[in-house]
């Protein structure tokens, strides 16, 4: 039996980009395809934030920013929607008043979506959602390398005594044995810390750090080489907090820090993941109430596009 070709986005030469389905990149819904190789799923949740809220509206905003995405990625010579079936799985509904229940729901729903081998690109939501996703992945893959793009370490212990927040997911993940402590990496870290102890604690948890300033000193090519050396040898989970970008490029986020990456630097770094065993990814902390002219939503949509292109090339390579 001949394999069915993937169903791609709505044809923009027939339906204007501001019309058509409100899915990511105007792709089909998951119930409109027989099976998805990759599902884009939203988690509209921001109960774990410590400063500015609004990330619960992130999934819709990123989908709106994705309307201009086109089928061919010339930077990678990839057709992310033509060589794999990508579909929009809608949003996971979680309890906004019970953080513990929300984490359990995300784990359960992500596991169900992944049960037939579908890979996930998850759109948050705040960074708390990374923990239940890693729990789900670790049950299949064992400890995974976490490639974490962020202005912040997100390995603090507690906030106001609470162990589960958007600033603690990777400490909990390390403590639970979900991450590969020899291959995990923070990218784009910058800004003030509580003390030097933050960095010392982080190193014990299994992360190396590439700072935002390293991009200025070393350049993207050198950064990508360091990244690939660290990640090679096993499964990789990519977690992109949009505040890794400078507020000039992504103002719509909850905890902005000056001195961040440009969108060009981030997209070029993500392209360096081709050939690595990427098993899933998220894009988090997009807060539409603080955005201007869809800058942040468009940047996040392009992050998703590059990640989908990486998955497509990796799948084609077998």
UniProtKB/TrEMBL annotation:
Co-factor binding comment: Binds 2 manganese ions per subunit.
Binding residues for Mn(2+): 127, 150, 152, 154, 241, 243
GO molecular function: agmatinase activity; metal ion binding
Cofactor field: Mn(2+)
CDD domains given in the database record: Agmatinase_PAH
Alphabetical GO biological process terms: putrescine biosynthetic process from arginine, via agmatine
Pfam family of the protein (one): Arginase
InterPro entries associated with the record: Agmatinase-rel, Ureohydrolase, Ureohydrolase_dom_sf, Ureohydrolase_Mn_BS
Keyword Metal-binding: yes
SUPFAM superfamilies the UniProt entry points to: Arginase/deacetylase
The UniProt record lists the keyword Hydrolase: yes
Superkingdom of the source species: Bacteria
PROSITE patterns, alphabetized: ARGINASE_1, ARGINASE_2
Gene3D superfamilies linked: Ureohydrolase domain
Record's keyword terms, sorted: Hydrolase, Manganese, Metal-binding
NCBIfam families (alphabetical): agmatinase
Family membership: Belongs to the arginase family. Agmatinase subfamily.
Protein name: Agmatinase
Taxonomy of the source species: Bacteria, Bacillati, Actinomycetota, Actinomycetes, Geodermatophilales
């Amino acid at each position: 039996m001949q394999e069915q070709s993937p169903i791609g986005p709505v044809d923009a030469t027939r339906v204007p980009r501001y019309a058509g389905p409100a899915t990511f990149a105007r792709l089909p819904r998951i119930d409109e395809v027989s099976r998805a190789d990759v599902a884009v799923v939203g988690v509209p949740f921001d109960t774990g934030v410590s400063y500015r809220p609004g990330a619960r509206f992130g999934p819709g905003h990123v989908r709106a920013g994705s309307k201009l995405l086109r089928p061919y990625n010339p930077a990678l010579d990839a057709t992310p929607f033509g060589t794999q079936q990508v579909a929009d799985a809608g949003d996971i509904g979680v309890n906004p008043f019970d953080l513990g229940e929300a984490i359990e729901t995300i784990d359960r729903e992500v596991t169900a979506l992944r049960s037939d081998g579908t890979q996930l690109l998850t759109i948050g939501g705040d960074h708390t959602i990374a923990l239940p996703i890693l729990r789900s992945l670790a049950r299949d893959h064992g400890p995974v390398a976490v490639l974490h793009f962020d202005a912040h370490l997100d390995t603090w212990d507690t906030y106001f005594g609470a162990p589960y927040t958007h600033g603690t997911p990777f400490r909990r993940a390390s403590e639970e044995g979900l991450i590969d402590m020899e291959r995990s990496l923070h990218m784009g870290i910058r800004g003030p810390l509580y003390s030097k102890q933050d960095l010392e604690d982080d190193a014990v948890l299994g992360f190396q750090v590439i700072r935002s300033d390293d991009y200025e000193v070393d350049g993207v090519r050198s950064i990508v080489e360091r990244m690939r050396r660290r990640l090679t040898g096993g499964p990789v989970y990519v977690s992109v907090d949009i505040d890794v970008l400078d507020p000039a490029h992504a103002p719509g986020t909850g905890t902005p820090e000056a001195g961040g990456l440009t969108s060009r630097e981030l997209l070029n770094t993500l392209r360096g993941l081709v050939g690595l065993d990427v098993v899933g990814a998220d894009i988090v902390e997009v807060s539409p109430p603080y955005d201007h002219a869809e800058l942040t939503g468009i940047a996040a949509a392009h992050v998703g596009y590059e990640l989908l292109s990486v998955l497509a090339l990796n799948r084609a390579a077998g």
